[in-house]
Design goal:
The complex is a heterodimer of chains A (317) and B (385). Chain A has helices at residues 2-7, 22-35, 50-55, 78-89, 93-101, 103-111, 115-129, 155-166, 170-184, 199-216, 235-247, 259-286, 304-315, and strands at residues 11-15, 40-45, 65-68, 71-76, 142-146, 189-195, 222-228, 252-254, 257-258, 291-295. Chain A is α/β, with parallel strands linked by helices and 317 residues long. In chain A, strand 8 (252-254) and strand 9 form a beta hairpin. Chain B has a domain at 19-173 and 237-293 and 340-372: 3-Layer(aba) Sandwich (Rossmann fold). Chain B has 15 helices and 8 strands. Classes of the chains: A alpha/beta (317), B alpha/beta (385).
Chain lengths: 317, 385
Amino acid sequence: MLLDSLVARRLVVLTGKGGVGKSVVGAALALAARARRKRVLLVEVGAALEASRRLGGPPSRGRETEALPGLFTLNLEPQAVMDEYVRHMVKLDLVARRVLASPIYHRFFAAAPGLKELMVLGKIMVLEEARRRLSREPLWDLIVVDAPATGHGLAYLKVPLAASLAVPVGPIGHNARRILTLLRDRERTALVVVAAPEEMAVVEAVELYRAAESGVGIEPSAVVLNGCHERRFSDEDEAEVLRLATSGATGDLEPGVPLAAAVRAARRQIRRRKLTRFYRDRLKRSLGSPLVSLPFLFRETLGLAELGTLADALESA
Amino acid sequence: MAPRRSPAATLGKALAEKRVLVTCGSGGVGKTTTAAALAVRAALRGRRVLVCTIDPSRRLATSLGKGQLSGRPRAIELKGLSPARGGTLHAMMLDVKGTFDALVTRHTQDAEARDRILKNRFYQHVSAALAGSHEYMAMEKLFELAQDERFELVVLDTPPTRHALDFLEAPDRLLAFLDVGVLRFFLRPYFVAGRLTVKVATRTGAALLKIADRFMGLQFLQELSEFFLAFEGMYDGFRKRAAEVHALLRAESTGFVLVAGPQPQALEEALFFHHRLVEKRMSFVAFLVNRVHTDPARERGARRGGRAVMAPELGALLTTTLREQQVLARVERRAVARLEVDTRERPVLVPELEQDVHDLRGLAAFAELVFEGAPERARAAEATP
């Protein structure tokens, strides 16, 4: 159900505190959309090539790279996006190269506040608008954007608004407004807040959610609670685990599996699943959007198989 | 060679002696909690401590059990935690706009010059709303706080890694920017006449201007140029301050604590950060790895021997549960071992807590775990039936 509403859009932007697994959720979402025969582009901001690595595809070095049939990854490095823009503006190759080599250009780009964010969002807008030459069909059915960790709250999403206020006229203001329109358009764009069942992550998710609504005018479409621990033991079994923990458990369940250790592990599992429930309830109470839970995966690595598991969970949510 | 101090002891020494401690790390690794816990610890041991976050998301307030923090240091009550004599704790959150305004006020000659900047539209929207100004202003504030006689130790919490790097480089970048006078170079002659009239000497310069015009528009350039012209008289003050911050970050009295999670990826980032610190000749204090998952079978009290009697279904569930957690513990152990090999530093390992930390008492308990390891009582509770 949630997936229905997300794949009906053109753009899904993921946001959330660092460490909650945004990029994993993004990759899983891209896989789930692909399973529905969508042509998907998964965009990561910055040099991190995590998505392609997890999906097993070749690293995308600033170009749309096919990780799986119908699923492409792209990493957007602000500097590279800006360079591309310069080459586009200055048709003369020699002059363009001189500009790109100029220290003034680099220092300006490094220091100008908000420019990086605006360039990246502008590029995403261009990707959304890209059409096939003959059919005029959109080039991408769905673009999933893994926005950078929100160390500065909604820094990224606030830039278009700030820029459009700071310079109402001229190309910057114009483009900032177009970006803002795209982000605010619930038909085309879904903002998804990713959280984890932990105090700080939940506090921040609620804050982000409200700041997006009131500060930027973007109403989030969903909350994904990643890394959930679900009930494993029945009430009677939980009681038995607690009894064993206090009455002393000796012996092995099987060779190499001491009962006392297994009971300790079970107590942790019970504590975590209670915490999951507690934070899930709190998010549901505080926020209006649908909430989807993804399981915590105890794996050595998070590769294609594990992402597939999460994609299935998104599909059946 | 003298035996090396344990990492916790190194951290404890820094906490007792340094003037500034900066906690850095990627998001979601308990950086803010760590900063707050270290500050509480130092205060309880008798130092006058200020903990400051540049994170606008109020996490520090949450962990200190306060509803809100402002741009001014606010005293945190330590009653009930029996602090040593003289120990006090203050907390604050960076107010970017306020700091910027104060900076402008300090560096401008008169009220007219000041207002010209404060009322500039570009300034009003850019100074607070955009990323980047956070780092500049954090540095500014840190410098000011480091001079503040009320505090013996300033613990600074920073935004996630990539931003934290920006943060370290902010003063250098500002210096580089001011050194070339980038904007003066191509904005000033351009706008003295208010129109695009100037002939630029080089083709590169002309192309730069063209890009700036096409991309940003005349209006923007005009605002920007007014903004920078208004800053004209402040450049020297800025340059001096940036150089001072640069020196402060490299001072012996400043130290960096790298906070990480135990996952391979989080530790990779910590490693990267360590390289950068060493490269920049900044003083590394310790790695602190939070929320380490231990293997229940390796803990004390996992008594063996004989076959346990158990309903088979429950037995199978219990076995699965233990094996899962062992996988997690193994992955983390390997990642930590790699970090040790690569950096020749032993990290402080903090096991996952029974409860999330969100009050002072929790912070003090967290610090105890960092410095004394799991308290004997809790260990005993785990170990004995």
